[in-house]
Structure formats: structure tokens, C-alpha cells
Amino acid sequence: MMAENNGVYLIRGAAILGAGAEDLMIRDGLIAARGADASSAEGAEDATVVEAGGLVALPGMVDIHTHLREPGREDAETVETGTRAAALGGYTAVHAMANSNPVADTAGVVEQVHSLGRASGWVDVRPVGAVTVGLAGEQLAELGAMADSRAQVRVFSDDGICVHDPVLMRRALEYVKAFDGVVAQHAQEPRLTAGAQMNEGTVSSVLGLAGWPAVAEESIIARDVLLAQHVDSRLHVCHVSTAGSVEIIRWAKGRGINVTAEVTPHHLLLTDDLVRSYDPVYKVNPPLRTDADVQALREALADGTIDVIGTDHAPHPSEHKECEWAQAAMGMTGLETALSVVQQTMIDTGLMDWAGFARITSTTPAAIGRVADQGRPLEVGEPANIILVDPSARWTVDPSKMATMGRNSPFKGRELPGKVVATFFKGHPTVLNGSLNTPYRHPAATAAGAS
Amino acid sequence: MKHLLSTQDLSLANAVQILDTAEEMAAVGEREVKKLPALRGRTVVNLFFEDSTRTRISFEAAAKRLSADVINFAAKGSSVSKGESLKDTAQTLSAMGADAVVIRHWASGAPQRLAATDWIDAAVINAGDGTHEHPTQALLDAFTMRRHWTKLTGAASIGADLTGMRVVIAGDVLHSRVARSNVWLLRTLGAHVTLVAPPTLLPIGVESWPCKVSYNLDEVIEGGVDAVMMLRVQGERMNASFFPSTREYSRRWGFDDNRLRSLDTLGLKDTIIMHPGPMNRGLEISSAAADSPRSTVLAQVRNGVSVRMAALYLLLSGDTREPAAVPAGTTAAPTTKESK
Known about the structure:
heterodimer; A: alpha/beta; TIM Barrel; 2 domains; 9-stranded mixed β-sheet; B: Rossmann fold
């Protein structure tokens, strides 16, 4: 822990985006100086010095896909615990998915989540609004009211459930154009996946678990990119998991369709072979796929076909995983392991550098979510949302030590590379020395919605 | 081998050992007093989350012939139907001192969950899990086939495998735990398996299985077959577009009277007809086929008790790593070993 101070920090010798070592000075929530000027800048003599030799400085990560569970399932996660996990994982903003209880389908609920996020002060919490009332897929929720609310919702999703009615999807895509919104689709054809338990293929044939065919994802993505083209709107595809989906998105981008796509860290590393254990910690929606899919997803992320990392952080109480596979809830935690898994699969493999990492974890997700002061370059005058990462660190995943309430990490026991050493959120260190510090306190006088 | 969860991971030595031990157990069944003291003082729980009177009474008879104490725990109408979890049920049984749990569950992998977690320390026997496996059914099928096969070849049954035997498994492979367990076990025992099914009732990924696949039952029979195993068609498949109608299914994939006659005209006089039961007469198997001298349906039931005695005995006596330790001679009773 560190005593509250004057809010001036001098980060010394960090490799900015993995390039040469430079100094950064933070003052009043902004990057006040960079490079040789930093140590002589005004106020530097009173600054708290953070030695960052060997560390990489990156813009704070922005998660486009997080489940914070509050309101409704505070036994699984709260905004407080989920955003603590986010800060430790290197995030300075998360998009909180709408499948809470009550569903975030009204201005009231999204404002509540937004307020809880501000009160916690660990990251920016950007509520995602439901596309349809109650996620029921029948009637559009009041998207405009959510957009105009203090939460300023721009991302709309029925995540967990596919907006499978083609007319409703068309209308949603059209309607969000009025306020520069985006529809984030959970691509899963419901009839093709009734009762599905795992990826349909060699492993499911042996395990006798009902198959979840790749075509159930791909057919919806194919339909949606054509709808997005037809109505000239903006589509985001959640958690792409198959090689075939990658091909369709590549084709759509080649035609100039305004589509973005995300991939989860777990789909970049894990395969359906793990299901042979029948351990529900590996049960997730969409399911873990094959090694060929994993390789295709990595290549697509490297070449820009897939735009961003979304954790799909989905904490569950242990009783929802300590049971039969078919009874278990779907989902995995991910906020505190995302950076390490992406480093292992994309950077340590040579597919991407740290500048690319900043693009897929910060710049582009902030752009998709229209989050104005996140994902910015580490330049003078920009908001000081900065993380310091030790890429040479190695650590063994122990879910019981995580800040999230969820213990359902599929990486349990694995040794992973890379560790977040510090997270600066609006110029304030929420994480220092790899541990939680103190939350940022929003000035009381700040106008509503100005976070 | 502490548990019997699947046939996929069953070695040839262990499989043959179970079959050989089952022969010893079958000999006990011929005696006037059909009971051994082998598992006296041990507790076997039949934990059934799915109705299956046949399998349950088979295991019950097997455990009782070995003098074990048997507890039948049917999930319906119990605390399980009031929402108790598998974990709590398992811990309850553990606290009551169960030495073996015979579990039938509608969810694939449930027995493996019991075996892999620390919820219970008992030996776990899979008595059928979802659409995954039913290893003791495959073992009793193999036992039945081995008796038939060795009689034909004149070899001794003890120690034999099924090298060269041609086995056809026909029907709803997609949803069949019996088919899966048979495919792995028969491969291990050296038999050649051909699956016959409508394409809708074969799993995606079946091409990776160690067997041939055909859509044409007549062609496969004409190619020569030593055992035909017909799988039950579950009622719930009939209205889910897996096939157009029960009549069409019966004509194309059922073992009907014409196919029964074709065995004779093709000169396949020693081909047996198998069915795990319960049968849908007139759907996947005709009455004439089910009741013909070729049918082994009742022998399978009888052999089921012997095979389950063998499995319980070997798991609870801890003898499975040393096949040589199987009691020799058909009259010697297996002795109890306390080591577990």
C-alpha cells in the first residue's frame, strides 16, 4: 500500500509499447511528460518514482466482454470484486454484459451498474445494454434510453443468447445507427445447439456429449455480416471460436462490411481435448474447439481479421461447477489471466509485438465501445491510463488467490508468462508491485456522466 | 485398476482377466449354493439416477452372490429429486462406508466425476452414463461372443480373445453407450467391428473410431458376419427427424425376417444375433429373430451377472494388476483380499 500523495508519478525507464526505455511523468490524471523531459518536468522533484526498468508500458486494457454479475448474482461476483480483478489484470475499463438480474435492458439498470462502477473506482465500468427486453429475443429494449442515460451505452448485446430472429437482428442493427451504437452478437443458432454440451467432433463422439457444431456459430455470423451490409450498420461478433467463422469475417471485411470481432484468451490456448476429464471448469459457451481452430484464431488475431481480445470473464459459484458436466454452468474467469495467456499465445510465439498487443487489448476495444478517454496513445496530454508489465515474470495460476469471486479458472495450475506490475487508472495507481493499491476516487463535483 | 469407468482405457490383459474371472463366477452359478464369501462385510451401493431395473437387479444379484451388503439408492423419490447434488450424495454414501458405488446416470461422465473428485473414496463402477459408456454391458457381450467363438474354433475359453471375429453393431449408434463400449472393447480383443446405421444416427467424428461404418445392412451381412448386435431405438428419437418413420427404419435398418432368412441362404450358419435389451420387437428386431436359436439375448442376461461379479470381485479385492492371481480351476472359490 502507498499513502495518498500529490498524484505525481515518475515512471522511470519503461519500454513504451515494448520499444526503447523512456520516462513518463503523470500529473493531474494526465501524461504530463514523456522521455528525457520527464524527470525535469514541473513537479518531478516531488513525484513518487516508479522504477520500471525491464517493464513494458502499455495503455490500460479495455475489456469488451465482462460479466460482473451484479445486480442479481452477487454470490458469483460483484462490481467491486470484478473490477478489482480487472485492475489486477491490467484493465482500466470493462464492458459489463447485460445478462444480470434484472437484465440491463432499461436506463435504470445500466445507470445502477455505471454508478456501482464509479463508486468502486478500480476501472471504468461501461454497461452493455440488452438488445431485447429480458434477453427474450422478442421485443427491442429501449436502446435509445440506455444510450442517452448517464451510462452512455454504445454496445448492445443479448450475450449468452443469440438474437436469432433475423428480422429483430436487422431492426437492432438499423436502430443503433441513431446513436452510433453497435450490436455485439452472441452467434449461436439455437436449434442447432439444443442441449449442446461441447464442440461437435472427434472428442464429442467418444465422450457421448451432445455436439455443438461449428456451423451453428458460422451460419449466424454469415447472416449477420450480410444484414450489417444491407442496413449499413456496425456489427461486433462476440467470442469467435472457429476457423470457419474467421473465414467468413475475413470475407466480410474484404467486402468493406463494418464488422469487428473478438476472441477470448481461452479460445487461443485450450482445446476440446480437455473435456475428456469431464471437469466442468472446461465447460464454456462457445465451447473449446480443436487445435486447428486455435491456430486459425491466432493467425486471424495477428492479421487483423479478429480485432480484439474479449475475456468473457464469467465467474460462477463453485456449486455450479462441482457437479455433472451436463448440470454445470458455462463460463470461465479470465480477467486476471488474459494478459498472460495473450502473451504466451501471441507474443512469445512471435505472432505479434507489444504494440499489436496494445491495439487488440486497448485501442481497438475502446474504439468499438466508443470509450473516449481509454485506449489512447501514451503521449503528453493523454489520460494516464497506463499499465506496467513484466514480460519475463513466470507465475503459476492459483484461482484461490484471485480477486474475482469465481474460482473457475481453466488455467489452474498452469505456469504462465507475464505479470501486471502496476495499473494507473486516471493517473492513480490502482495496482502497485503486482498488488491492489487503492481505488481512484471520482471528484464529487464531477458532472454526471463525465467519467 | 481402481474403477471401471470405460472400456476405452481397459487393457487387453485386464479385459481378458475380467472375462476369465467371469467364467469362474459362472461356474459358481451352476452350483447348488450360488454364493461365495468373497465380499462378506463389504458394502456395494447401487446408485441409480436413471431407471433401469434390469441392470440394477443384475448388479444386485452379482453383489449378493459375493456376499456383499447391497444398498439400492434410486435417485427418484429420494433427496436427489429434492435438489441434492451428486457431490452431497457421494459424500453421504462415503460417510456410510460404501466400498463400491455402482452408478447409473443420465449424464455422460458422471461416474468419472465421482472417481476423479475427493467426494468419495469407493471403487466406482459405471453402470451406464448418458450416451457415453456402459462397460459391463460390453464385457458381458464380449463374454457371450467369446464362448461362442471359442466353441467354434475349439480353443479354450480361458485366456482367449476375439481375434478375427466379425461383429456388426446396427442401430442408433449416436445415442448408444452400448455401441461405444463395445467398439473399444472389441477392438482391444481383436475383433473386426462394422457399425451400420442411418447417417443421422452416427456421431460426427465416427470416422476416427477403430471400426468400419456402413449405411447398408444387407451388404454388410452378405460380406460375412459372425455376430449381429441390434441396438434399441429409443422412443424419443422417433419424432426428432432422425428417420422418417418406424416402418422405414425397420425396413432399412431392422433385423427382420428376410435378413434372418438371408443368414441361412448365405450359409452363415454360426452367426449369432445379439441385443442388449429391452427389445422393441418389430422395430429393430423381429420376433422370429429374437426367438431364433441364433439369438443370445437370454444368455447375455445370464452372463451379465457373472461379468458383474467378476468386476466387483476384482475391483474390491485389488487383484487386477496381476492376472496370474486369478484363482485357477473352476471349483476354487476366489478368496477375499483385504488390500484395496
